[in-house]
Design brief:
This protein is mostly helical. Helices cover about 75% and strands about 0% of the residues.
C-alpha cells in the first residue's frame, strides 16, 4: 500500500508543478504523506493548502 501512496504523492507534486496555487493538490499530498507517517512533511503541505484556501478544512 505504501507504494500507492508514493505514486499518489508523485502525481500531486506534478499537479502542484503545473499549478502551485492548487490548494486541494497540496491537501491531498498532505493526506498521502500523513498516511505514510511523514508527519512533518504532511503538516507543511497542509499549511500550504490552508494558506492558499483559508476555507479548506485541514487536520491540525
Amino acid at each position: 500500500m505504501d507504494e500507492r501512496y508514493e505514486e499518489a504523492i508523485e502525481a500531486f507534486e506534478k499537479a502542484i508543478d503545473i499549478n502551485p496555487d492548487d490548494a486541494y493538490a497540496w491537501y491531498l499530498k498532505g493526506s498521502a504523506l500523513n498516511s505514510l507517517g511523514r508527519d512533518e512533511e504532511a503538516v507543511e503541505a497542509y499549511e500550504k493548502a490552508k494558506e492558499l484556501d483559508s476555507n479548506l478544512q485541514v487536520p491540525s
